[in-house]
User: What shape does this take?
Amino acid sequence: MSASTPPRAIQHFIDGRYVPSANGATFEKFSPVDGTLMAHVSEAGEADVDAAVSAARAALRGPWGRMGVDERLALINRIADEIERRFDDFLDAECADTGKPKSLARRLDIPRGSANFRAFTEIVKTHHGQVYFKNTPSYGVLNYTLSKPRGVIAIIAPWNLPLLLTTWKLAPALATGNAVVVKPSEETPSTTALLGEVMNAVDVPAGVFNVVHGLGPNSAGEFLTRHPGVNGITFTGETGTGEAIMRQAATGTRPVSFEMGGKNPALVFADANLDKAIPELLRSCFLNSGQVCLGTERAYVHRTIFDEVVERLSAGAAKMKIAPPSDPDAALGPLISQGHRDKVLGYYRQAKAAGATVVLGGGVPAMEGALANGSWVEPTIWTGLPEDASVIREEVFGPCVHLRPFDDEDEAIQLGNDTPYGLTASIWTQDVSRAHRVAGAMDVGLCWINSWFLRDLRTPFGGAKRSGIGREGGNYSLEFYTEMKNVCIDI
Assistant: This one.
């Protein structure tokens, strides 16, 4: 967005219409690329959230609630068609909000936005109940299960992969017949707002999909998660925010599905194929400028190959081009905001103060012209820190990694698991037995072997320990978005 482009107005989407806040409140959205004012975004008050929840509840009583499964799934496939038809609109909106390279969003964020809908139409088609028969003296008892929509689902989405992670929740929620109220991050309102146009274009009934914008405490997030008309809350984001939402959900005992923070380790054994491991480690440490919940911030490397890995990883990271989204060679964009950049730079300073050897980066890159006002940081590699250092214990969520040597398998497992988080891990070895042993020993929800960020949307995804509650993906998602009923018949 150029300095001469006037800021846009982004409104709520409630009951099939774009509407401003009832009290007229707005907040400002700034470009992470050059710091310019991009938009005035409506900020929801309690009245706006109540209107959105009421519209969702009305939709469940209307045509949406009476719609057959085949008709509903055909409609959801049309949502995917419309996202694909408007691919460039979503691409522009995603990159304007986040600053990520268009080359990344073009191959990841936007394709997954439509793929999530297609995947869950197929999953719901084959989803079925269970039947049990038990003999009795008279003849027998038949039990069978029914899955019904849970009701109104509150979706609290993050800013790092806004379209991908919103639709990852939205697709199963709609496929199972729920109505939703989405609160996107205040940093990335655009693609979620654009989904309202998609819903209207394919004739999704009014009230099925609603969007309220705003912040967390004393704003849209708090008003939505404490609303008594919400039947379930799904959230992806920082662990502290998840804990606050849990406290809200306790009133009314609403179920939650959370994917939260991580401090993910990579374990690189002496027999690893480094020609494959190094490029994948570069991705896992620096993709999306390190703003990926699955990313690697701790790498433990066998001592015999430690120096080689440090050298090759730093050489690869040094070649990664830092540039705005439109540059086809951009590997790293800015961080999401000046506030987040300040947080990440604070960790960079803490690492240096704790005695880290700064192998690469550690500061702010020199950017020309208006780009100097953006939220840029350098990709950073450290060695030499103790395991109790803040950048080893806490999630930085920036383009950084600390490397430490280990001597044997047991030590590698202990170091990898020594964290309050348990989202993912990656293991690099050509020893099949070791790969299975170590994968089984890691306290995580998802463990990759000789790979990273490979996803089959039918498989369970989620975290252990402070990284989450529940699992998403395939039929595992449906356990949250539906209410299971048992029907018992004395034959």
Summary: The chain has a mean pLDDT of 97. The first strand starts at residue 8 and ends at 10. The chain has 17 helices and 23 strands. Residues 30 and 413 are 42 Å apart (CA to CA).
